[in-house]
Amino acid sequence: MRFRDSWETFRRSRVGPIGLMILLVFVLMAVSGPIYVYIRGEEIYHPLKGVDPVIKGVSPPSIRHPLGTDHLGRDLLAQLMYGAQTSFLIGITAAAMAVFIGTSVGLTAGYFGGAIDNLLMRIVDIMMVLPGLPLIIITAAAIGKQSIWIIVFLIAILGWAGTARVIRSQTLSLRERPFVEAARVAGASDTRIIFKHIAPNVLPLTTLYLTLGIPGVIITEAAISFLGLGDPSKVSWGMMLQWAFTTGNTYNPYWLFPPGLCITLMALAFYLIGRGMEEIINPRLREI
Amino acid sequence: MSLATYIIKRTIQIAITLFVVITILFFLFRVMPGDPTAFLLDPKMSPEAKEIIRKQFGLDKPLYVQYVLYVRNVLKGDFGTSFYYGVPVFERIKELLPNTLLLWVPAILLSYFIGINVGRRIAWKRGSKEEYIMIVLGLFFLGMPIFWFGMIMIWLFYHELGIFPAGGMMTPELWLDPSTPLWKKAADIVYHLLLPIITLSIGGFAGSMLLMRNSMLDTLREDYITTARAKGLKESVIRDKHAARNAMLPIVTAMSISLAFSAGGGVLTETIFSWPGLGREIVQAVLNYDYPLAQAAFFYISVIVLFANLVADVLYAYLDPRIKY
Amino acid sequence: MNMLLDVRNLKMYYRTRRGHVKAVDGVNFSLNRGKALGLVGESGCGKTSIGITLLRILPTNAEVIEGSALFDGTDILKIGEEEMRKYRWKRISMIFQGAMNALNPVHKVGDQIIEAIITHEGISKEEARERVARLFELVGLNPDRMDNYPHEYSGGMRQRAIIAMALACNPDLIIADEPTTALDVIVQDKILREMRRIQRETETAMIYISHDISVIAETCDEIAVMYAGKIVERGPIERVFENPLHPYTKALMSAFPSVKGEKRRLETIPGEPPNLLHPPEGCRFHPRCPYAKPLCSEVEPLEEEFGNGRFASCHFAGEW
Question: Among A26, A65, A122, B139, which is disulfide-ready with A271 (CB 3.0 to 4.6 Å)?
Answer without folding.
Answer: B139
